[in-house]
Design brief:
This protein has twelve helices and nine strands. The chain has helices at about 5-10, 60-75, 95-100, 105-125, 140-145, 175-180, 185-190, 200-205, 215-230, 230-245, 250-265, 270-280; strands at about 35-40, 45-50, 80-85, 130-135, 135-140, 150-155, 160, 195, 210. β2 (about 45-50), α2 and β3 (about 80-85) form a beta-alpha-beta unit. α2 packs parallel to α4 (about 105-125) and α10 (about 230-245) packs antiparallel against α11. The longest helix is centred in the middle third of the chain and has 20 residues, at about 105-125. The two termini are about 15 Å apart.
Length: about 290
């Protein structure tokens, strides 16, 4: 019997992801032979690393298509967390202008629609997604960071929406950034195009924290471990509900949250957690 509210059931919410074999090596998902990514499984974590350092991890259509496939594949796995990173000196420079410049209006619209689908998928997968940011994250690269559930950056990292001082304004990257930093800070980023450092990004809410470069991996793993403990099914439903209520009026957000939380109280994970608390013992999660 399902206790998921009809609104979420209609969106195809999966509270228990499909099982796949666990391994700690390079993986191919759904037959995709990655050219622009390194995708590995490390215990309960899928690590997706953008691997076009010679292009500053610029987001061409091919790169975005691989990101979409990788996140969908990870989302269908039994992993509990996903780490998004970049190789080379830059996290991501945003859209690949060589790709954009070669397209007409319809082609650019298709490219931006694909990019939006990647960002939406990052939010939609049931796993906790954390960005590991080093170097610069600009334009659509900054959009990627803002779209992840969590983000940790090295102190040497920087963030920018540089279209404000160029010829192509950062309209779509501004969407998730606005929801992370608020109106006035968005306006400063978007209108000036100037970068902010990692400490400022943390103060503004674009990332969770900035750490010394040498501590980046440890800080990412620590935050991910704390964010993924507990019931996987409960976490997946919780993540979906958080995103669903964020931009609603408070009364509507409460209506949604009450129904989902009531329904979730009947799920095996909730029952196991409550029983463990009442019996003063560690929980044994059924999922």
């Amino acid at each position: 019997m399902s206790f998921i509210p009809p609104e979420f059931a209609a969106q195809g919410l999966r509270t228990i992801p499909r099982k796949v074999s666990r391994r700690s090596a390079a993986i191919t998902v759904d037959g995709v032979d990655y050219q622009h990514l390194l995708v590995t499984r490390d215990g309960d974590t899928v690590r997706i690393t953008m691997n076009r350092p010679e292009r500053r991890n610029a987001l061409s259509a091919e790169h975005l298509g691989e990101l979409l496939a990788a996140f969908r594949g990870a989302g269908d796995s039994d992993a509990t967390g996903i780490v998004l990173a970049g190789s080379g000196p830059v996290f991501s420079a945003g859209h690949d202008f060589a790709d954009v410049a070669a397209r007409d209006l319809l082609g650019v619209r298709e490219l931006l629609t694909l990019c939006t689908e990647v960002m939406s998928t990052v939010e939609a997968v049931p796993q906790v997604v954390i960005a590991r940011v080093h170097g610069l994250a600009t334009a659509a690269g900054c959009q990627l960071v803002a779209s992840c559930d969590l983000a940790v950056a090295a102190e040497s990292a920087g963030f920018a929406l540089p279209g404000g001082k160029g010829g192509w304004f950062c309209h779509t990257p501004a969407v998730p950034v606005a929801r992370a930093v608020g109106r006035k800070r968005l306006m400063e980023l978007a209108l000036t195009g100037d970068p902010i450092d990692a400490r400022t990004a943390a103060e503004w809410g674009l990332i969770n924290r900035a750490v010394p470069d040498a501590d980046l991996d440890a800080a990412v793993d620590d935050l991910l471990a704390r964010a993924t403990r507990g019931s996987r099914a409960s976490k997946a439903l919780g993540k979906r509900t958080l995103y669903a209520q964020l931009d609603r009026p408070e009364a509507d957000a409460y209506t949604l949250a009450v129904e989902v939380m009531a329904a979730a109280s009947q799920l095996p994970g909730a029952r196991a957690g409550m029983a463990a608390f009442l019996e003063k013992r560690p929980p044994v999660w059924p999922d």
